[in-house]
Design goal:
This protein is an all-alpha fold. It contains 12 helices and no strands. α1 runs parallel beside α6. It is globular and about 55 Å long.
């Protein structure tokens, strides 16, 4: 009985953290997909992985330390794009390669935390602690507020960047806002689905929403809904059938995308 209670407690923690993460991923994913920055989550996940490795090596809180490292990395990507005049994907490739190389190097030098570090590679929903639930809830509030307060400006920037630049909209601040919110979201996403699948968590629900939505607000709504269904449904399937939660979440997200695509083709 006590084992069932422990599993139930861990399951509820996963649902709470996953629900908060779903909201953040659903909102941010729409902007990343429409800006053609979908792969930024992939690059930032490598930087976040390096931050986790550094945190473990220094005996610091890996999630908090990784958030700090990932935020610095996101600002460095923007700086490289602006001052080194590198294309966005090139700057991202440089930093993500450096992040992954650093993580591998630390794993080879300090083998005692290799198993814990691997949990961030594949995700470990049962390792979600109370502090990470609070972080996920704070993240959901932060992302929701950041997008709500800047929604009209973000839409203007996405659909007519040149006109937005001429109008003095403050594009650099908006770019930094999106990238920094993405960085924090990616770090917390590592605990749910891991480094290898976190990009799918931000991209697939948004891509599904674009198949069905008739306007931008509907796109945001459907993206959050599909993200929530993917995470909560995937965690539930993993709990019931003893499956890897990360794989169940992403496969469910892909099923939703396939259904949305078929509905679009049919109607």
């Amino acid at each position: 009985m006590s084992g069932d209670l422990i599993l139930s407690s861990l399951f509820l923690r996963g649902l709470l953290a996953g629900g908060c993460l779903a909201l953040a991923c659903g909102l941010l994913g729409v902007f990343l997909v429409l800006r053609r920055d979908a792969m930024i989550s992939h690059g930032l996940s490598h930087v976040a992985f390096a931050g986790v490795a550094l945190g473990l090596a220094l005996n610091l809180m890996p999630v908090i330390f990784s958030i700090a490292v990932c935020l610095l990395g996101s600002l460095l990507i923007i700086r490289l794009k602006e001052q080194a005049r590198l294309p966005g994907d090139t700057a991202l490739a440089l930093l993500s390669s450096a992040g992954l190389a650093l993580a591998v190097l630390l794993m080879s030098l300090k083998k005692d935390f290799g198993a814990e570090l691997m949990s961030y590679l594949f995700g470990d929903i049962l390792a979600i602690g109370p502090s990470e639930i609070y972080l996920a809830a704070g993240l959901a509030v932060l992302v929701s507020a950041g997008i709500s307060l800047n929604l009209s400006r973000l839409i203007f920037m996405m659909f007519d960047r040149e006109a937005a630049s001429v109008s003095g909209l403050g594009l650099k601040k908006l770019d930094r806002l999106l990238v920094m919110m993405s960085a924090v979201t990616i770090v917390l996403g590592l605990r749910i689905v891991g480094l290898l699948l976190v990009t799918g968590l931000t991209v697939i629900p948004a891509a599904s929403a674009l198949q069905l939505a008739r306007n931008f607000r509907q796109t945001l709504f459907f993206s959050c809904l599909f993200s929530l269904l993917s995470i909560l449904g995937g965690i539930s399937l993993a709990y019931v059938f003893n499956l890897p939660a990360s794989a169940a979440i992403i496969f469910l997200a892909l099923v939703i995308f396939a259904l949305a695509y078929l509905l679009k083709r049919r109607y």
